[in-house]
Amino acid sequence: MAAPNTNLLIYLKQIGTMPGCRALHLHISNLPKGVRTRDNITQAIGLLNDLSRRTPTSRVFLLNTLDVVFVSINLDTGLLRQTASNIHKIFGREPVGSNVYTTEDFATLIDIAANDTRLLAYAETLFASNVAEPNADGKMRGSVQIYLQVMERIGSTDISTILLSQPAYATVAEGKMVPVFREMYVSIKALEDAFCPGASLVKRRTLFTELTEHLDKAVLKVVARQPEFGHRSLSLNLNLMTLTSREFAAFDGAMTEDQRSKIVLEFHRNDVVANFALFQRLAPSLTERGYSLCIDALDAHLLAHFDLKGLHCRFAKLFWSQDALASGNALRDLIAERANRDEGVEYILARCDNAAAIRLAKHAGFSLLQGKLIDHMVKHDIPL
What top-level branch of life does the organism fall under (predicted)? Predict the structure, then answer.
C-alpha cells in the first residue's frame, strides 16, 4: 500500500509554509541492503519519536521506499542534525549513489518554512508513481489531483450525511426477522457527487484503495462522536492498516467495554490474505477488547481454506451470486460440518436482492441475511 506516501503528501499540503517548519529526510533506501533491517529502522524511528516529545506538532513518516521523514515545528536545526548523525551511526554504512536530491548525504534538512519545496515535489512524484495505472495507450489514467483533493476534504468534512447503513437479520420464530447489527458504509455515489461531480472514484483501483483508508478514519470519527451509535450494534468495514493508525487508537480509547461488545469489525478477504501476519497479530487483542470480527467477501472455495475459529472470527460473510448458487450443496455441507465441530461462527449471506438468494440461504444454512429484498420484507412484515 502507498498510504504512508499519501499521508506525507497530504500533511505537507496542509501545513504549507508554516513558520518554524523543518523536515529531516533520512535516505535509508540508499544504504546497502544488508543494513536496511527492521531493527535498525525501528531504532531510528525510536530516536525520532524521542525527539518528537519536544514538540506536539511533529510527525514521523516511514515511506514505502524505507526512507524516513520527520517533520517538526520550531526544533533547533543543530538538534535535528545531531539526531540524524546518531541515526546514521545505527546503520553504520554510507549511502550508495545519489539520493533524490542528487547528493550523497544520508540525511537532508529541508526548511519548509523558507519555501524549500524539494520534499513536497518528491512526495508528489512518489505518490504518482504508486498510484499510476497505465491504460491501453500506456498513458497515465485518472487525475491524481482529484483524489488528493478528495482525501484532503474528507479529513476536514463531516461525512455523516453520506454515511448509510444496512442491517443484517437473523430469523426467529415463524420466519420473523430481527436485526443483529447494522453495517455502516459510505455511499460512494454521494461522495462523488459531493466532492468530485462527474468523476468516478472507483475506476482507479489503486487510488480508490488509498481513498478507503482515509474514509475509514473519517467514519471512525463520526461514530466516536455521535452518542447514538454507542447504543446499538453496528459493523464497520475497515482496512487492516487502519487498525495501526492514531485515529483507530483514539476511537478505541473513546469506546467503553459495552460499546466495543456491540461493534463488528469487517475485513475484506483480499486484505486479510495480503496482510495475513498483521491480521494474526491484531485479531486476538481486538477480540480481547470486546470487538467481534468478520471476514467479508468469501466464497465456497475460499471458505474451505479459512480456519475462522483460529482467526478469532465470529462472522463470515459471503455474497449472493450465480456462482454461489452453483456451490449451494458444497456450502451446505461445509457450514454443517463446521457447526458440528462447534466452530462458533455465524454465516451471513449478503446482497440478498432476489428470491433465489433466499432459497440458497435456506438450503445452505446461513444464519444471517442481508440485502435489499430482506429490507423490503422486514419493512412490510413479510416472513421469510
Answer: Bacteria
pLDDT tens per residue across span 39-82: 999 999 999 988 888 877 788 999 989 999 999 988 999 999 99
Is the confidence at residue 131, as pLDDT, over 70? Answer: no
Instruction: Count CA within 13 A, CB hemisphere, residue 56.
Output: 0
Rounded alpha-carbon distances, angstroms, from residue 133 to 122, 139, 221: 19, 8, 31
Q: Are 297 and 317 in contact, with CB atoms under 8 Å apart?
A: yes
Coarse DSSP helix, strand, coil percentages of the chain, rounded to the nearest 5 percent? 50, 20, 30
Question: In whole angstroms, how far apart are CA 315 and each of 134, 136, 293, 358?
Answer: 38, 40, 6, 19
Residue owning grid cell 478514519: 217
Q: Whole-angstrom Cα distance, residue 63 to residue 373?
A: 45
* Coil, helix or strand at residue 215: helix
pLDDT value at position 201? 83
Mind listing the domains of the chain with CATH numbers?
3-131 (3.30.70), 151-379 (3.20.20.450)
At residue 294, the 3 state secondary structure works out as: strand
Q: Where are the alpha helices (DSSP H) in 70-143?
A: 77-91, 118-131
| pTM of the shown model | 0.72
